[in-house]
Every structure is written in C-alpha cells, then in structure tokens.
C-alpha cells in the first residue's frame, strides 16, 4: 500500500513540527515555503520557552499547554535551549497584588514556582532592579528560533519529508466537486511553476493563513498582531526576567547568547509582509526594560524588529485574545474537503499544535497512527543541511 | 570541471587585492604573498647570474656592467625591501602562530613594517650613494 | 517624524541557468533602520522573486550574512547609517566562498557538515563562555547555568577568509574555533582532523575572520590557541601521556 501524502504550506514552527509528526506517522510529506525556514513570525520570536506563568492568571488553557510542552521540548531538543529558568518580579504595589493571583494560577496549571525573597532573587540575578518587592522562580528558558525549527525539519527530513523552500503557493487545485487536491507553486529560485498533489493539504501559514483560506472563500482567518522586539548588546541576566503583572508591553527581558531581548508590544495590522519598526515602541521597550534591569540603559541597541503573532480571530483587543491555537477542517467549516488550517498558538506549543493537526489529518484519512513526537529526541539541527532533500 | 575550478581560483587570487578590504591582517597577508613571489623570482635570476660565472670572466664582467644600471640597482633595492618585509612579517606570523601577541597583531604589524621601511631606506641610501 | 533617506540598493541577482547581474532599487529608509529591512522591503513591495536568507532579525540565528558594500556583514544588525549616507548606495552581494543557490542565498551544507564533525555545541555552560567585562555573575553557580554559544554559524568568517578563497579544502575559521572551544582534551579524536595541511596549520594570520565576526568569537585567536593545543597534545602522545 502506498503511503498517504501530505503537503504542509509554511515552514514556520507549526509547519516544521507538523512535517516531523506526519513523517513519523508514515506520511510522505512535502513542505512548501515561500522563503527560507522560519522567515516570518517564528524566526522573529524572542525565543522564550514559556513556563506558562505569563498566562496562568487569565489564559489557563495556554498556560497548561506551555508548561506541558516546555517539559517535552527540554527533553527532545536540549541542543538549542538555554535551560536556566526565569523570574517573575514585582516592582510596584500593583505588581505585588497580582502576585496572589499568580500563585493561584500557577498552582492550578501545575507550574512549579518557588517564591524568593528580594535578597535571594538579587543573589541569583544581581542586575535586576534592586527595588523589587517579590520574586518567583519559574521553569522558563530561552531557545534559538532558527535552530529549534531546523531540528524539527532535520528529523522530518530523516524520516523522508521533503522541503521546497523559496516556493510560493499561487493557487489551490480542485477536483470537480470543489475539494482541494493539490497546489500550484512558483519556485522563486528558477521561476518555474508546477503542480503538487496530496491526500491532505495543511495550511500552516500562521499570520498569513487568510491568504490561503480566501482561496476557498472561507471566513477562517487570523488577526495579525505585531509586536516589537529590541535586542541589546550585553547579557546582564542569566534567566528570563518577567514583570509580575498581567500581559503588557515590555513585560519581559530575555537573555540570549551575549545579548538581552526586550519584548513586546501589541497592535493589529492588515499587511503582514512588511511591518516597519515603530521608533516610539523601541523607546518604550528601553524604558520598560530598564524598570526590570536598570543596567540596560548602559547597553547598546543591537537590533530592533517586528514579529507578527497569528492570533485567532475573535472579538476583543489583542492582549485579551487567548494565545491558544485552533485547527479548522474546511470540510466542516466550509464544506471544502482536503484542506486543514492550523493557526494561533505560540512557539513553545509547536509540537502540540503539530500533534493536533496530524491527529485531524489521520482521522480525516482514516489512518490509525499514534503521535510519537513527545518521545522521539530530535537529531542535530545541522543534519537539515546534510541530509539530501 | 577542472577549468572551472581554476577559474574560481584565479578570481579568488584577484580578490586578495580587493581595495575594499583594508584591514591590517589582510594587507600583511597580501604583502607577504607578493614579496614571496618577488623573492622567488629573484632567486631564479640570481641562479642565472651565477651561471654566467661558468662562461668565463668576460661574460660575467660584461653582464655586471649591465646590472650597474640604476634600473637594476632599483630592482636590487626592491629585493632588499621585500626581504625585510617578508622576514619581519614572518616573525609576526611565527609569534602569532604560537599565541604570542595575538591581541596586538595590528600594532605588531605596523611596528615591524616601520622597521622594514627604516631599514630599507638606510640600505637604499647606501646602495644609491656608494 | 524622523528623517528618511533615499537609498539606492544594488542587488546581486542570479537565477538557475541565467547570467548573474545587478539590479537597482530606490528605497526610502530611515538611517536607523537595518540593511536587512531594506532587502525585505524590496521583496515585499518591488520584486517577489528576490530570494535571501533571514530568520531572527537580531543576530542570534546567523542566517542573514551578506556582503554589504564589499564587506561581510550580518545585515540584521547593520544600520543603514553605518554603511551609507543620504542619497548613497548599498551594494548587496551573497557571501563569498559558498556556491550561490539563488540571488543572495548560498549553499552552506559543507560548512554545517564540518561544524557537525567538529562537534560544535550551541549550548555551552556559562563558565566556558567568554563575557564582556563588567558583568556581574552570581558566585559559584556558574556551572549550573548554560547559554547559547557565541558562534552563530553565519559563515561570515568563511566568506572573508583569503585562505578559503584559494583553498576550499581548508576547514575554515569557525570550524577550527569550535574545536578550540571544545578543546582537544575533550575530543582527542579530532586531533588528526585539525593537525593537517588543510587544518589548523593552513591559516596565514590574515585576521579577516576576527574583523568580520559579528559575534565576538575571535576565530583568529582561537586558531592560534588551537595550534598550542595540537602541539601539546602531540607532545603528550609522544610520551604516552593522557
């Protein structure tokens, strides 16, 4: 019997993890990506391996997803993770009041936290604001975004997945009944156009999901919600330093290599192909970052960039939308078979998103195959470059 | 296939002289290569001249008259300067190779090249005045 | 509102089976923006067929190395104002010493393969990591903490190296630096791989790698130090010492 075939559109975190999952379940997978690996939102994440603490009060579904996946990723892909943990610190009385909710939230979500005195916190992280009022240690981490994706892609490739980069989807191909059976693509390296067919097509284009779903006249869409990130040229901390407050602008400073990254803001845009950096927001990050780590004012800016979250379209402003993810079977939503859209979510939950969408694909095609990705360690990310395509 | 490799190599060699790359270490590298080529050519010329000895005193003397010409003297001056540059820079490379003075490789380069220039000038004055 | 400059981007274009050429694009850029922003803008608004490598936009992934006005730069952290002026030119070419795949995209598979052979680690303990001066570090806890290594495997050092230019078999700066960081005592099996005509002894001290490294790796110093490691290892082996 021939293998079931799948096309994954998009080589962001969701796409590469989905390719890995499907390849392990015996699919013949082709990933089509219009640029290089993780050139969109995924590559531009600040790289926080969420403990879930950030969402433990208001968005517990996301928080639980985060802590579960945090533990799994530490196990399967330690090769790209700074595993040092993180702190939530209170600077103002208002922050301190939020602390009560935070403790309850973390307990409900099974996130291990340890309360520290300000003195203990300063011993661990001498460069944080000495005026802190309270601190909690959480199992945060930092990962390298490109290499995290490459580790998934490499393992997928080892299991037979093929990657077609710089290849943009121009049209969907339909059978007589209006169901999707393939895609027409444009290879940007050669200018060539050709068709690809598969049993199931998975739209994993994140903030760009609407560009594919509109081809089947579907309402399934996302709210592209960019935020600014600013990198500074010194590493004054060894752990992620979170502001103990509800999700807000500039609520985190992350260590990464010899740098620190401060994030982020939140607003909505229509055009996501190019989102210019807003200078005022960069200044705001420096100000907010300095409230957590005063020494940041003596460092130099090393980079500033925008990353566009793919938030699931629901009513309400950006920060109040849940950070969880959703899978849409277009057969159910729009009566168009052969196409699944997955969007929303966050970097930390990439594996779980892939599991969910692969479950859906298997169910649709009547395939019995269990998800193995929580157990299988990923091979070296460099194998992505070494393995033949 | 082979000709293609050679083409790449030739353009690669031309890139040594890319003026946009002006860092000290790279200039040292270029100077060392050029002076090495010059000294190698001189070595062969030198052997040819020595070969004249075998043809008897007349042949040798008439040849020596030709090389008294200032153009040849200037050529000899280049050999001396090349020797200083190559030799002194070689000292820097040897020191660096064993981890000595690596953070000061630029200063070392400029210092040794200053020595090479001064020494060449002194020898040059003697060559042209004596 | 902040000032905008008019910049002429001159971009190297090469597609499968076609002659390479340069194409010009005129852009309005703020001097504070980064060179990569301009390249991305060209793709977004002017020419969708332009291909280039990028991911993190803040110098942690190492994908966006290119030649900017002839010099190796990580384009995501290179500000427009540092490489040109109002009305000026930004000339973008792919990195040297790698085969071009398409436009600014190069094939780095040999490089990554060698990095893998070198057992280069991305996550290193804090005590192994160099630090900028003046940074406080918690006492006695250094061994429990880790960080991503300095080397982001961008390939800029390979592109800048005049030895690699004439001898592609030369292992290259980043690879030798990775062996030095791990130490031959840790991986003695790498000794013969680096103690070799195409290995650590091929370097001719041009120091271009250190000049262009965007990430403080200082490959040239590490190559010199690796030579010491090689010699000491050989001497020890000679006397049958461990």
Explain what you see:
- The complex is a heterotrimer of chains A (389), B (130) and C (242).
- By secondary structure, chain A is of the alpha+beta class.
- Chain A folds into 2 domains: 177 residues, FAD/NAD(P)-binding domain; 173 residues, D-Amino Acid Oxidase, Chain A, domain 2 (2-Layer Sandwich), CATH 3.30.9.10.
- In chain A, 28% of the residues lie in helices and 27% in strands.
- Chain A has 10 helices and 20 strands.
- In chain A, a hairpin with a 5-residue loop joins β10 and β11.
- Chain A is elongated, with a radius of gyration of 21 Å.
- The model of chain A has no long low-confidence stretch (mean pLDDT 95).
- The N and C termini of chain B lie far apart (56 Å).
- Chain B is elongated.
- The N terminus of chain B is likely disordered.
- Chain B has one domain: 3 helical TM bundles of succinate and fumarate reductases.
- In chain B, 82% of the residues lie in helices and 0% in strands.
- The longest helix of chain B has 30 residues.
- In chain B, α2 crosses α4 and α4 packs antiparallel against α5.
- Chain B has 130 residues and is mainly α.
- Chain B is built from 5 helices and no strands.
- Chain C is an alpha+beta fold and 242 residues long.
- Chain C folds into 2 domains: 102 residues, Ubiquitin-like (UB roll) (Roll); 130 residues, Alpha-helical ferredoxin (Fumarate Reductase Iron-sulfur Protein, Chain B, domain 2, Orthogonal Bundle).
- In chain C, the strands form 3 sheets. Chain C has a 5-stranded mixed sheet.
- In chain C, α6 packs across α9.
- About 3% of the residues of chain C have low confidence.
- Chains in contact: A-C, B-C.
């Amino acid at each position: 019997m021939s293998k079931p075939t799948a096309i994954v559109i998009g080589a962001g975190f969701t796409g590469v993890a989905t390719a890995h999952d499907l390849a392990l379940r015996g699919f013949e997978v082709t990933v089509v990506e219009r640029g290089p690996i993780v050139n969109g939102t995924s590559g531009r994440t600040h790289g926080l391996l969420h403990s879930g603490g950030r969402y433990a009060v208001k968005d517990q579904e996301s928080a639980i997803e985060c802590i579960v996946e945090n533990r799994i990723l530490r196990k399967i892909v330690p090769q790209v993770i700074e595993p040092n943990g993180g702190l939530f610190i209170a600077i103002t009385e208002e922050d301190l009041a939020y602390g009560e909710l935070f403790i309850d939230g973390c307990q409900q979500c099974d996130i291990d936290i340890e309360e520290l005195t300000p003195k203990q916190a300063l011993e661990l992280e001498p460069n944080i604001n000495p005026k802190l009022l309270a601190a909690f240690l959480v199992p945060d981490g930092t990962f390298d975004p490109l290499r995290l994706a490459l580790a998934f892609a490499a393992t997928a490739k080892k299991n037979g997945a093929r990657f077609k980069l710089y290849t943009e989807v121009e049209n969907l191909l339909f059978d007589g009944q209006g169901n999707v059976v393939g895609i027409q693509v444009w290879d940007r390296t050669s200018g060539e156009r050709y068709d690809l067919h598969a049993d199931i097509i998975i739209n994993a284009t994140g903030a760009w999901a609407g560009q594919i779903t509109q081809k089947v006249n579907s309402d399934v869409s996302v709210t592209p919600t960019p935020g600014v990130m600013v990198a500074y040229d010194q590493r004054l901390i060894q752990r992620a330093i979170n502001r103990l407050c509800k999700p807000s602008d500039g609520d985190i400073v992350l260590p990464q290599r010899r740098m620190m990254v401060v994030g982020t803001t939140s607003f909505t845009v229509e055009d996501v192909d190019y989102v210019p950096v807003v200078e005022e927001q960069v200044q705001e990050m420096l100000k907010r970052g300095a409230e957590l780590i005063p020494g940041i004012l003596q460092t130099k800016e090393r980079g500033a960039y925008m990353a566009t979250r793919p938030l699931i379209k629901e009513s309400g402003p950006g920060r109040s939308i849940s950070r969880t993810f959703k899978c849409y079977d277009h057969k159910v939503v729009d009566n168009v078979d052969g196409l699944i859209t997955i969007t929303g979510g966050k970097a930390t939950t990439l594996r779980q998103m892939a599991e969910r969408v692969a479950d859906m694909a298997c169910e649709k095609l009547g395939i019995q195959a269990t998800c193995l990705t929580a157990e299988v360690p990923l091979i070296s990310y460099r194998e992505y470059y070494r393995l033949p395509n | 296939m082979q000709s293609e490799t050679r083409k790449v190599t030739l353009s690669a060699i031309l890139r040594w002289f890319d003026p946009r790359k002006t860092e000290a270490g790279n200039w040292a590298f270029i100077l060392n290569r050029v002076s090495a080529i010059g000294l190698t050519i001189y070595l062969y010329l030198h052997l040819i001249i020595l070969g004249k000895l075998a043809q008897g005193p007349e042949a040798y003397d008439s040849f020596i008259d030709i090389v008294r010409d200032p153009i040849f003297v200037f050529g000899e001056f280049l050999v001396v300067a090349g020797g200083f540059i190559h030799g002194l820079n070689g000292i820097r490379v040897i020191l660096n190779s064993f981890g000595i003075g690596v953070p000061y490789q630029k200063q070392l380069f400029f210092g040794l090249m200053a020595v090479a220039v001064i020494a060449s000038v002194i020898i040059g004055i003697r060559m042209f005045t004596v | 509102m902040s000032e905008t400059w008019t910049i002429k981007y001159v971009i190297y274009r090469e597609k499968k089976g076609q002659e390479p050429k340069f194409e010009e694009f005129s852009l309005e850029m703020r001097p504070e923006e980064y060179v990569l922003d301009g390249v991305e803008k060209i793709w977004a608004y002017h020419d969708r067929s332009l291909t280039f490598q990028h991911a993190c936009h803040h110098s942690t992934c190492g994908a966006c190395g290119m030649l900017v006005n002839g010099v190796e730069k990580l384009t995501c952290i290179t500000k427009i104002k540092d490489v040109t002026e109002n009305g000026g030119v930004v000339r973008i070419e792919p990195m040297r010493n790698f085969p071009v795949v398409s436009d600014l995209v190069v094939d780095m598979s040999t490089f990554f393969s060698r990095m893998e052979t070198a057992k280069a680690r991305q996550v290193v303990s804090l005590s192994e990591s160099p630090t900028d001066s003046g940074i406080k570090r918690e006492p006695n806890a250094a061994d429990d903490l880790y960080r991503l290594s300095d080397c982001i495997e961008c390939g800029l050092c390979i592109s800048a190296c005049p030895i690699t230019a004439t001898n592609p078999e030369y292992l290259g700066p980043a690879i030798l630096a990775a062996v030095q960081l791990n130490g031959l005592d840790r991986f003695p099996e790498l000794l013969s791989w680096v103690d070799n005509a195409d290995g650590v002894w091929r370097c001719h001290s041009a120091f271009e790698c250190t000049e262009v490294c965007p990430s403080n790796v200082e490959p040239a110093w590490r190559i010199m130090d690796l030579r010491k490691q090689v010699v000491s290892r050989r001497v020890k082996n000679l006397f049958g010492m461990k």
